[in-house]
């Protein structure tokens, strides 16, 4: 509150007292002039006195006003101090209050300096003092009211102080926490700055790494492209290398087969039943390695003959590529001749047949049983194993089954009608494409039921016909430099009818005619084999040899199994069979000599054959025949004919009228009437 302004507004405004009394009556102009002058002089003196008093009073009033101004100034200062420090300095407020009271008392009790001559000046000073006193009291009252208000504020401030003290503690606690948080914030800020720097460095590293990766990626792509090119080149080189290696292996394989001869002869002695007495069995001598391998190859047969002096015991010696004894199984036999099946899958022409008398084990060797599968079932399994072992080749297998009976050809893939088998020409024989070994086996099993058999004195189930099972194997190259090339092979598996002496077998009528036809076919087959060995013209004069013509020509490979009986009662026929085998062995030696001569002359044109010879002896009851087999020195060796070989496969039938057996077999192949490729 501005007390100075208030005091200035409330200062006394009453007029100063007059020096002349207006109510005095006027004197007579003349009489009373002296008196008047006297009175005027007195009045002047009084007026001077009054003026002096008034001057003194005015001085007093001026001093009083000065003091009041000083007091007001002090009050204003105190008020400002009170306003500024009242809340926090309550003790000072009491001190100021005391000072105010003391100051007020000193102002009120100050004696007046005016003289009271006529009482008017005293009354004026008294009025002034009362006025000042009243104003001071009012001001003091106002100040006391303000002080009371300040005390209330003090009490409230005290309470607020107590609350503030608690609040101050909380504030201090908060300040401490704030300080801690500030420290933490500073640390966090420092950490953030460090993390920012690390992030910036990581970003920079990442950018550098990305640039490096881009460079590496470009280099990798370039290297990858180069590697692809190199890989393709390597693949091409490897394919070429593989093709060359396969060609080399095939050539070596063919050379080995050529060294073994285009005509191979093996012998198998039928196992005798366990209940047969040893005295009823022939003595074939101890197993002796022959001239063709380290295995049993020489047969020393102890045979008897009648002479003028009685019965003569002599030893007959026969050499074969290998002899299978009574302990050897069909699996052992197939392991020895499986390379020929491999040749057929590579595009060669191969024929395997079993030759021997009735009851010598031909059918068992070729077909076998469920417990001991023969050559034909094992061949079927091997063909499809080869066909499925490599994705680089695609194989197609077709099979034909015919029967040659009394110089007539019957197709066993065609179901007989009204008990009569389908008689066909060779060019009309049916072929069935098979996709699995199971399908081929099912076809074979069904066709075998139509084969002609009969009981003879030698065998209850004697085959009276020749069974020819032919396979056409087409191999197509799918990869490498030879992709698209096709190789076609033919494999004939022949189960010949038994050779026998018709008179000894007690044959009559139909069996007599069958026996004559069988022996004629076998004789013609022997002539063909001999001609092949000698390199002379091959006489295909019978239905059997005509059916095998495609696989018995130049470049073909033929294996003859000579099947013999172990019983003494069959000695004469066993010796006859072994003699036929010996003739085939001569043909084998001649073919080997011719092959060696061709190999020598092809390597060294104009060179003479190498000298040296091997002697293979075949002992007969009367003489010992020596057959020379040398490197081109044999008299029987001749230059092979250059005429073109004919198609090895039997043409497929063009007629669709016959019912095919294949259509009746759920697991069989599809019959195709077109001409084989």
Written account of the structure:
This protein is of the alpha+beta class. It has three domains: 1-9 and 33-204, no CATH class; 264-328 and 555-640, no CATH class; 346-551 and 642-677, 3-Layer(aba) Sandwich (Kinesin), CATH 3.40.850.10. The chain is 50% helix and 17% strand. The chain contains twelve helices and 17 strands. The chain has helices at residues 3-9, 32-85, 90-108, 120-260, 330-345, 362-366, 375-389, 437-448, 502-505, 509-534, 543-547, 571-603, and strands at 263-269, 288-289, 296-307, 310-319, 322-324, 349-356, 393-405, 408-411, 431-434, 453-454, 462-463, 466-477, 486-495, 557-564, 613-619, 624-630, 670-672. The strands form four sheets. Strands 1, 5, 6, 7, 8, 9, 12, 13, 14 and 17 form a ten-stranded mixed β-sheet that branches. Strands 2-3-4 form a three-stranded antiparallel β-sheet, with helices on one face. A hairpin with a 4-residue loop joins strand 15 (613-619) and strand 16. The longest helix is centred in the N-terminal third of the chain and has 141 residues, at 120-260. The radius of gyration is 74 Å and the shape is rod-shaped. Mean pLDDT is 71; it is low at 1-22, 111-119 and 603-677. Keywords: ATP-binding, Microtubule, Motor protein, Nucleotide-binding.
Quick tags:
677 residues; alpha+beta; Kinesin; 3 domains; ten-stranded mixed sheet; 12 helices; motor protein; nucleotide-binding
């Amino acid at each position: 509150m501005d007390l100075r302004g208030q005091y200035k507004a409330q200062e006394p405004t009453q007029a100063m007292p007059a020096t002349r009394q207006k109510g005095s009556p006027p004197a007579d102009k003349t009489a009373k002039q002296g008196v008047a002058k006297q009175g005027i002089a007195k009045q002047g003196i009084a007026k001077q006195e009054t003026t002096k008093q008034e001057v003194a009073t005015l001085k007093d009033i001026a001093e009083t006003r000065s003091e009041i101004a000083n007091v007001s100034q002090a009050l204003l200062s105190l008020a400002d101090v009170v306003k500024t420090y009242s809340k926090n300095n309550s003790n000072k407020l009491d001190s100021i209050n005391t000072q105010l009271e003391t100051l007020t008392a000193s102002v009120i009790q100050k004696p007046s300096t005016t003289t009271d001559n006529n009482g008017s000046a005293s009354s004026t000073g008294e009025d002034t003092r009362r006025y000042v006193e009243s104003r001071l009291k009012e001001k003091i009252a106002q100040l006391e009211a303000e002080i009371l208000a300040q005390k209330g504020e003090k009490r409230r401030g005290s309470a607020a102080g107590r609350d503030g003290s608690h609040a101050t503690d909380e504030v201090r606690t908060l300040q401490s926490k704030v300080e801690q948080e500030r420290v933490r914030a500073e640390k966090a800020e420092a950490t953030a700055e460090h993390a920012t720097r690390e992030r910036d460095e990581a970003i920079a590293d990442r950018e550098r790494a990305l640039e490096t990766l881009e460079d590496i990626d470009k280099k990798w792509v370039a290297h990858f492209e180069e590697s692809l090119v190199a890989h393709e080149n390597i693949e091409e080189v490897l394919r070429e290398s593989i093709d060359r290696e396969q060609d080399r292996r095939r050539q070596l394989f063919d050379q080995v087969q050529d060294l073994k001869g285009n005509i191979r002869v093996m012998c198998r002695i039928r196992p005798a039943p366990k209940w047969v007495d040893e005295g009823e069995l022939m003595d074939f001598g101890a197993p002796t390695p022959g001239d063709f391998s380290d295995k049993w190859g020489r047969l020393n047969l102890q045979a008897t003959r009648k002479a003028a002096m009685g019965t003569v015991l002599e030893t007959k010696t026969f050499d074969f590529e290998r002899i299978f004894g009574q302990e050897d199984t069909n699996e052992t036999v197939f392991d020895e001749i499986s390379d020929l099946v491999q040749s057929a899958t590579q595009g060669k022409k191969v024929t395997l047949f079993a030759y021997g008398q009735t009851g010598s084990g031909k059918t068992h060797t070729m077909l076998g049983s469920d417990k001991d599968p023969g050559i034909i079932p094992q061949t079927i399994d091997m063909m499809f194993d080869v066909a499925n072992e490599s994705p680089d080749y695609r194989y197609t297998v077709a099979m034909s089954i015919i029967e040659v009976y009394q110089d007539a050809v019957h197709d066993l893939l065609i179901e007989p009608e009204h008990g009569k088998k389908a008689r066909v020409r060779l060019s009309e024989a049916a072929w069935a494409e098979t996709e699995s070994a199971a399908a081929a086996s099912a076809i074979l099993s069904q066709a075998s039921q139509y084969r002609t058999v009969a009981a003879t004195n030698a065998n209850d189930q004697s085959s009276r016909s020749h069974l020819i099972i032919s396979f056409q194997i087409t191999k197509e190259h799918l990869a490498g430099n030879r992709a698209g090339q096709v190789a076609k092979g033919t494999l004939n598996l022949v189960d010949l009818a038994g050779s026998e002496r018709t008179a000894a077998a007690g044959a009559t009528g139909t069996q007599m005619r069958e026996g004559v036809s069988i022996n004629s076919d076998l004789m013609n087959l022997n002539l063909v084999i001999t001609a092949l060995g000698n390199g002379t013209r091959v006489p295909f004069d019978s239905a059997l040899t005509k059916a095998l013509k495609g696989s018995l020509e130049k470049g073909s490979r033929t294996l003859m199994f000579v099947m013999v009986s172990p019983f003494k009662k069959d000695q004469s026929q066993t010796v006859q069979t072994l003699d036929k085998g010996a003739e085939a062995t001569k043909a084998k030696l001649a073919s080997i000599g011719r092959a060696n001569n061709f190999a020598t002359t092809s390597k060294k044109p104009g060179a003479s054959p190498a000298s040296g010879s091997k002697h293979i002896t075949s002992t007969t009851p009367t003489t010992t025949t020596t057959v020379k087999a040398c490197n081109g020195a044999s008299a029987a060796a001749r230059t092979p004919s250059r005429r073109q070989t004919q198609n090895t496969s039997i043409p497929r039938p063009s007629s669709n009228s016959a019912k095919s057996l294949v259509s009746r077999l759920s697991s069989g192949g599809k019959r195709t009437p077109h001409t084989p490729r």
